[in-house]
Amino acid sequence: MAGHSKWKNIQGRKNAQDAKRGKIFQKLSREIYMAAKAGGVDPATNAALRLVMDKAKAANMPNDNIDRALKKASNVGENEHYDEITYEGYGPAGVAILVYALTDNRNRTATNVRVAFTRNGGSLGETGSVSYMFDRKGYIAIERANLSVDEDTMFENVLEAGAEDLETSEEVFEIYTAPEDFTMVRDTLEEEGYTLAQAELTMVPQTLVELDADQQAQLQVLIDKLEEDDDVSEVYTSADMSLFN
């Protein structure tokens, strides 16, 4: 993981995400509905639902929105169905792009994703064309401000909690876990009193690609177009997104 500061990527795109908050809530409601429909409305017994609810709270989604999605999922007559689809492609300078979608109309989503790629300097690839360039990981960030814990102590704590790796910068401790250990590590760190600035399952690129200014701008437009689609839930790239301001 060395050199792959996901925290810088998160901070580099925070303002853009904040501007899309209403649409993000709509997408999260759909994810909550699907998770609750599949495994029940109690996050204590539905790990997938708890992950989505944590994601919603991190996005400052109002409790009323979460409750509505849960109530909808608990209705016996409710029978909406969504398919989970992954699209793989390339952006400017060959940057790898993974697009996760949750859709009730495969044809509509496929067309929209293809148009977003082809009109903004990218191209769709075959299944498996770029997914091998990413690793599924649990990711936890703990900001160091007002935290009286040194790197050695934190390293011991995260290893004891079951994490795989720790990266340290002046601003943040970044912790990576195997996907199956993420919940255990997160809960352990919270029980030890740490405040988590970010905690999620994510796709981590094995290699980051640096772009020049024009390529950065073109990739940002492509990402924006993909994320504007109601069916797209996540977009991951191998670009060094900390360069985006």
Describe the structure concisely for a colleague.
Keywords: Cytoplasm, DNA-binding, Transcription, Transcription regulation. With 245 residues, the protein is an alpha+beta fold.
Protein topology:
Elements: H1 6-19, H2 21-39, H3 47-58, H4 63-74, E1 83-90, E2 96-103, H5 106-118, E3 123-124, E4 134-143, H6 151-161, E5 165-168, E6 172-177, H7 182-191, E7 198-205, H8 213-228, E8 232-237
Antiparallel strand pairs: 1-2, 1-3, 2-8, 4-6, 4-7, 5-6
Features:
245 residues, alpha+beta, Arc Repressor Mutant, subunit A, Alpha-Beta Plaits, 3 domains, 4-stranded antiparallel β-sheet, 21% strand
Structure commentary:
This protein has a four-stranded antiparallel beta sheet. A four-stranded antiparallel beta sheet has the order 5-6-4-7. Helix content is 44%, strand content 21%. It has 245 residues and is of the alpha+beta class. Helix 2 (21-39) runs antiparallel to helix 3 (47-58) and helix 2 runs parallel beside helix 4. The longest helix is centred in the N-terminal third of the chain and has 19 residues, at 21-39. It has helices at residues 6-19, 21-39, 47-58, 63-74, 106-118, 151-161, 182-191, 213-228, and strands at 83-90, 96-103, 123-124, 134-143, 165-168, 172-177, 198-205, 232-237. It starts with 5 loop residues before the first helix and ends in an 8-residue tail after the last strand. It contains eight helices and eight strands, in the order H-H-H-H-E-E-H-E-E-H-E-E-H-E-H-E. The chain has three domains: 6-74, Integrase, N-terminal zinc-binding domain (Arc Repressor Mutant, subunit A, Orthogonal Bundle), CATH 1.10.10.200; 83-132 and 207-237, YebC, transcriptional regulation domain (Alpha-Beta Plaits, 2-Layer Sandwich); 134-205, Alpha-Beta Plaits. Belongs to the TACO1 family. It is found in: Cytoplasm. InterPro entries: Integrase-like_N, TACO1_YebC-like_2nd/3rd_dom, TACO1_YebC_N, Transcrip_reg_TACO1-like, Transcrip_reg_TACO1-like_dom3, YebC-like. Residues 5-75 form the TACO1/YebC-like N-terminal domain. This is Probable transcriptional regulatory protein BCR24_11970.
